[in-house]
Amino acid sequence: MKFVAMVFVVGAIAIIFADSNSEAGDILYAWKTYLIDPNNVLQSWDPTLDNPCTWFHVTCNGQNSVVRVDLGAANLSGTLVPQLAMLSNLQYLQVQNNSIGGEIPSQLGNLTKLVSLGLENNQLNGPIPSSLGNLKSLRWMRLNSNKLSGKIPISVLKLIYWGNLQLLNVSDNQLAGTLRQANQTGFATTIVIQDMTA
């Protein structure tokens, strides 16, 4: 009887992992439909495969949860999608050096485990979402060389003082305002890279 109960528990856990993997696969495949991929970089992103951990450019942790998406310099165009925020264990989102356009979805501020956000050298426009200030685990935020406009939200600037942010690069955009360097003992050191003129 104990053996049957153990098999049932192991089976239930396997189903939970399969469901979470299937959901992550659905999210990533949905994003793929918004991307133009002339070099077939995303060819392995096959919706018939339940486990996106087997896809190229996707890394999972020991619990088969997606923690990293690396699509730098993949010659992709299209947009980011709000559904990416449902990858709750995502730590690295790297899509730099592509032609990704549109606005940065505010929902990305729900990726509270994110360590690195690499969106530089794309065609992103619109404001920097204030919700990115929720990313307290973020160490590297690279938004440079896009077409972003408006001011850097105060919530994002607060990551310099209260978060783990080590690098904030917003240069080569159409942002307004300037930051003043301040050396205050006790705060983490953050490298801020911006345009010299506003």
From TrEMBL:
Residues 1-18 form the signal peptide. Residues 25-61 form the Leucine-rich repeat-containing N-terminal plant-type domain. It holds the Pfam family LRRNT_2. GO terms for biological process: defense response to fungus. The keyword Transmembrane helix does not apply. One of its GO terms (molecular function) is kinase activity. Keywords: Kinase, Leucine-rich repeat, Receptor, Repeat, Signal, Transferase. The keyword Signal applies. This is Somatic embryogenesis receptor kinase 1. It comes from Capsicum baccatum.
